[in-house]
Design a protein that fits this description.
Trp Operon Repressor, Chain A, binds S-adenosylmethionine, about 240 residues, five-stranded parallel sheet, two-stranded antiparallel sheet, alpha/beta
């Protein structure tokens, strides 16, 4: 394990929102142990405007405000100088490529960490995206008010893949989407709850049989709940 924590820098107009989410639970504890780190930078601090304004009206007319390129570019530059390296920068946008477990894996493998940029209002001046961002990532085919929820989701999914954040690697290699399948159903005590019993096989103590049952359940669930994933899995096996 490297001595420098895997770090995610987040450019946002709402640093407290992002920090509050990531400072809790597993990510908060991993940060306290020095395995990961994150910092939410206030974009407004980099505005050259006397009122610390970070947005303006859209050229060509239309609703709402568009975030200026200058404070965003200056914030990115300052963070890179602070960290002493160029940082892979991701614009969170509903027009980006859909975020997946595979993308989380790729981002977790980037040495040192990444930077996430949260838009707000009607979005961000396209020239900032063209000149400063390495890629655009979307949380899904819907529109959020701002990029903060998307940034927390991406940061959380990436952080849990960093070695040492979870107790064991099996915690994530066993889960939904790791190998193209959804996870098998999980049960805990009591063995019977409101008349519903845990499947017998899980009480057998026979791990080979349990593993076989879990694999069958994972396949069945994927076929039924996500036929698109099941088809993709088949195509990949044919290759
Ligand atoms: C209201 S949205 C702007 C939507 C933009 N006018 C459009 O139609 O594509 C404001 C900001 O929220 C964030 N955002 C909204 N939906 C998102 C999504 N599905 N995935 C990632 N970020 C999103 C982006 O950072 C975006 O700049």
């Amino acid at each position: 394990m490297s001595n420098t924590p895997y770090t995610i820098d987040i450019l946002t107009l709402f640093p407290e929102t992002v920090s509050a989410v990531l400072a809790d639970s597993i990510t908060g504890r991993a940060r306290a142990r020095g395995i990961i780190d994150f910092f939410a930078w206030q974009i407004r601090d980099f505005s050259k405007n006397r009122q610390r304004q970070t947005d303006d009206y859209p050229y060509g007319g239309g609703q709402g405000a568009v975030m200026n390129a200058q404070p965003l570019a200056d914030a990115q530059r300052a963070v890179q100088i602070h960290r002493g390296r160029k940082i892979h920068t991701i614009m969170l946008s509903p027009a980006g490529q859909p975020f997946t477990q595979e993308k989380a894996r790729q981002l977790a493998a980037i040495s040192g960490g990444i930077m996430l940029v949260c838009g707000h209002y009607e979005g961000v001046d396209e020239r900032f995206i063209e000149s400063c961002c390495d890629e655009c990532v979307s949380l899904g085919d819907f529109v959020l008010t701002g990029g903060e929820i998307a940034a927390c989701a991406v940061a959380d999914a990436v952080f849990r893949l960093i070695p040492g954040v979870l107790a064991e690697e099996a915690c994530f290699t066993d889960e939904s989407h790791w190998n193209g399948l959804l996870e098998y159903p999980q049960y805990t005590r009591p063995a019977v709850w409101e008349g519903r019993a845990v499947p017998e096989v899980l009480l057998s103590g026979n791990h080979a049989v349990i593993n076989k049952w879990r694999r069958e359940q994972a396949e069945q669930r994927t076929k039924t709940l996500r036929p698109d994933l099941w088809e993709k899995q088949g195509r990949e096996q044919e290759k």
